[in-house]
## 1
Amino acid sequence: MSPIPATIGDFSILPVTIPPLPSFPKSAVHYIYVRRNVPKVPTADDSRRLFLTNIPVDSTELHLRSLFASLVGAGRFESVTFSDERSQDSESAADAAPLHAVRLLAAHGNKKRKRDDAEAAAERAREEEAAALPKTWTRTLHLTGSTAVVQLADKKSLEQVLKAIAKVHKNKKYPSWPSPENVPKLGSTWLKAHNVLSYPSKDTIQTAIDNFSTMFAKREQEAAEIAKRLRNEPDEDGFVTVTKGASRTTPASRIEAEEARKKMLERQEKKKLELANFYAFQIRERKKEEQAELLKKIEEDRQKVFEMRAKRGRFVPES
């Protein structure tokens, strides 16, 4: 059997021993690929973040925290973000409020201090969590080959993790995949719990519906207040947004107004280009005339110099 490479490209290979289970009474080795996190949009914390791919399907924060503690000791691991969790969060946030309210709040609802923005974001997160329907699984499983981003305490901790992974290949002492006590068990217990959670009580569902209705109405009210302010607030060109009907509390469409302004600017640019092309012939003719005048003047000066030299050659000094 050929030895396991320590690296592949930018990735360091972390072999992890999976202990035997009742369903599969043999130990196995799973390979997690680790490298420095290099996102498309850099952030200030990238120097202390690791990108992991091919994580085990049953991974949780407690699993990875215990795994990193076995490599570099406790206190180095800070947090982890799974790729499928990011997609779920973005989808729920997008579906939690009316579309026009989301657009107005994103475009014109950020004129407060950063502290106020942070508090408002935390409050919205709590509202969305309370408005969500009950979960039907006690534990989420990831797809095969899923990825995660681990944030460590500092840059030094990141270097220590990479060195520990390299050391694993030298001493052949692979860390064991942990089994935290606080993580809900899988197997039949997991499926039985799912069967129970799939039928929540009417009171639980009604509470979630009421919280969602309250949150939805609040987002509508916030959008209406912003729209009311925008009705009398001129934009950067000095125009005021026109509304449809006297009783409507929201603008006809702020987005439509922006699109109309862009189209107007495009038409103006196109008109300038057409005018420039229209006068191009006259510009070329004027340049030709200026060039002819310059050549004529040069020829006249050359003729004067020639005549002066001729006169100077006929000069006879007195004896």
Note: The chain has nine helices and six strands.
## 2
Amino acid sequence: MAGTITDVPGVKVGNAQNNEALTGCSVILLEQPSVCGVDVRGSAPGTRETDLLDPMNMVSVVHAICLSGGSAYGLDAATGVMQYLEEKGIGLDVMFGVVPIVPGAVLFDLAIGDHKIRPDRQMGYEAAAKASKDLDEQGNVGAGTGASVGKLNGFSNAMKGGLGTASITLANGLVIGALVAVNAIGHVFDPQSGKILAGPRDEEGNILDSVEVMQTHTFSPIPPGTNTTIAVVASNAMLTKSEAKKVAQMAHDGLARTIRPIHTMNDGDTIFAVATGEVKATVDLIGSLSADVLAAAVICAIEHAESAGGLPSYSSLSQ
């Protein structure tokens, strides 16, 4: 499955990163305020404005979404996105100016690169300013710059994760896309072949099955909160806020098809679902295809990742 999330009308993406510190952020910028839902499945999340997205709460649209490295420190990047949007006059009109609505989620990448440098307000502003329809960056960019996978045999035996994207377009004009930063504690596998693409390695460099590795440990060797896969699925469908939340829930199946284990005590897996409101389609169809597209984006993230911070990548080991 080819394509990118920017194939969805009204969706732009900007990435900013520090390649030496190995951290970065990705901004999904919406040309028009759009309905958004969220579903958090991991037990160690770092999020911003997710309560606002509850269907019971007042504000029904968002102006951007920020995915970032840096653990909880990286939530500051969304402030820069707000600043950029405010300068453009974009946001919720509160009579005394505008308040841009920018939900966000972070992943833990402090174990790689320089942990003292994290995505901040300036980096978030830079990513927002770079947002465009021409998304040709994947792998070690944006929120995927310091991402890693397969940490159940110790971080030194892990592999490089990254940023991935994919999309699908139907004959009726429905477009569904996904953007994901893959930073899982588990391994990533191809659901078609069952082959493990990236995961924990043994002393000889062989890639192992994460669940089998867990069976050899009486306790987790990974501290809580050191992982997390975060994503946005977007479509040009007409959805309500509650329907968007259901799509986000269904999209998590895409992670379950490609990452094992997923939604653990050490992950903060979070998916946002955005709908720009142009095409009528059922929630079941949008949710099912969102899972498919997200699974493809996860594979793209691993295939485009490059070795960094002492961690090998799928491409380096498959050569």
Note: The helical segments are 77-87, 121-129, 210-214, 241-256, 283-304, 314-318.
## 3
Amino acid sequence: MSEVITSVSSDSLIIQDVIGEKVPNFINNAALFASSYLVGFLMMRSLTLVAFPTFLLLVVPGIMYGRMFMDGARKIRDEYEKAAVLAEQAVSSIRTVYSFVAERRTMSMFSNALEDSVKLGLRQGLAKGIAVGSNSVTFAIWAFMAWYGSRIVMYHDGKGGTVFAVGTAMEAWLSDPGFPTSNSTEGTVIENLSGDVEFRSVEFAYPSRLENIILRGFDLKVPAGKIVALVGGSGSGKSTVIALMETFYDPLGGEILLDGVDIRSIKLKWLRSQIGLVSQEPALFATSIKENLLFGKEEATMEEVLECSQLHLSAASGL
């Protein structure tokens, strides 16, 4: 449950950042880039053609930093999830922790779980510093444009005012070339979903307890439309199978297939939109039942809300 809360909180901040800042900035910069070069081509084609390749000196470092930033952010989130698991376990079993006088040990484990995230944060900060520093190449680009523009004025009957106007247009984009990055939305979508699920030689252990193997060579094949019950004692891996299917965790080995397609290659948002889950201990937000159900599908009609409520009641009563 703690991984879900951590993922929701971090992903909501990313979505807010994209909607509130990244998308408008991207549109602004894209429009500024296009209009700047359009004005340059119309006013002085030769100077603009010479200056055009220089934008790669700004874009390439930005793309490289974007990839490094996303990779680092993903690893940092994984490290935070490990720490969140420890915190959730300690809080939920606080009486046990207290009775065994394990407070210091728990705090030490939590601190150790955060050490890797600190190292990744420092590495991410270094990459950002290098990327921001690389923008100083704009001064060299401006100097080059001024020199080449002066050659056009002296030897090709160019006008100083036109050179200045083109240079100003180029400068407007060079001074703010930001190409924002956002989470990748890559992944396949199964067009005609049947619903066949297969666990093939799956190996899994929780990040906080890697020495405790939960699933070892686990095989399960569930044809579409079939009802299957997983039976076992506490800690045997029943809930783990569901968590793996929802991609809250990745298996250490083996494959989880949906209609023969590895779920790790499927678009995450689409995959989770195809799954409905009634957990043993459901958590409700402080609002109405209708609003809680609409969190799963905001555009749902009242008929769909009622149908979903009936399904929840049937599942809860074991029908």
Note: Confidence is low (pLDDT under 50) at residues 177-184.
## 4
Amino acid sequence: MNFVIAALALIIERRLGYPQQLVSSIGHPVMWFGKLIDFMERGVDKRERTPRQRRDAGIFTLAVLLLVALAVTLLVQQVTRSVPQGWILEVLLATPFLAQKELGRAVHAVADALQSSLAEGREAVSEIVGRDPQALDEAGVSRAAIETLAESTSDGVIAPLFWLLVLGLPGIVLYKAINTADSMIGHLNERYRHYGWAAAKLDDLVNWIPARLTLVLVTMACFFVPHASPGMAWTTARRDARKHASPNSGWPEAAFAGALGFSLGGPRSYDGEIVDLPAFGTGKRALVYSDILRALVLYRMTLNVTLALTAAIAILWLIAA
């Protein structure tokens, strides 16, 4: 039944997204997670504590977050499964945790802005990346948008879908709670190196399979995208993915780079400091706004392949049932 729920959730979210009216009135589940994480951080992360004490505080914060998310989700699931056709509500509840529509919209906005001017492109890309936008030229803005698209295809779409398929509604909610904690506190800077250790490590663990599954799906999508190379997507990812400091982020980035004949990654500027990062792929590096649009075509075809496979398994299950 998880495949049926997942297939319908993919269709609904891709078509409708998460309505802005709901964001304005009740917020988004990720915002709720963020408020709890922020509340816990203010209460337990004291700077005068030892590194071990701060690590323990981070573990406690993560445990509270996951227990609250699990308890609420199990209660909701108990209600949905006790009423006729309650699985339909599970479909609707799963959709906010899939970021297909918003991710595509945000990246497309960068391409549109960059087509108008570099200044507008920098402003648009600053909404989706943490690097210094003023340090980016047109190629830098384009690479930043495509790198974000590739990485978020994995942790914003494929990973939550994977955990929905494996563990149902609790799986996708717990995944998103972990991913939100990692994005807020799972950093290697002085502030979060110890406190965010547990969130970062757990996020690496739950994204391990989805990141590599994304490579498979991107490779499959290449067969349906003009001028995209499935062979280079696979070869580049197998060769370059492990260069990334993250055990997971390199796989989708290298897959997109190889598929489209780009070179992604490389040095970046954060808070005025240049960070030397590895490059993925050996192709075109002087990217322009139209290359972002090419990457979006590959992204959408990857979503199509993902939906087709999910729906096919759901239909087979319904026939067998």
Note: Strands lie at 264-265, 268-270, 273-275, 279-280.
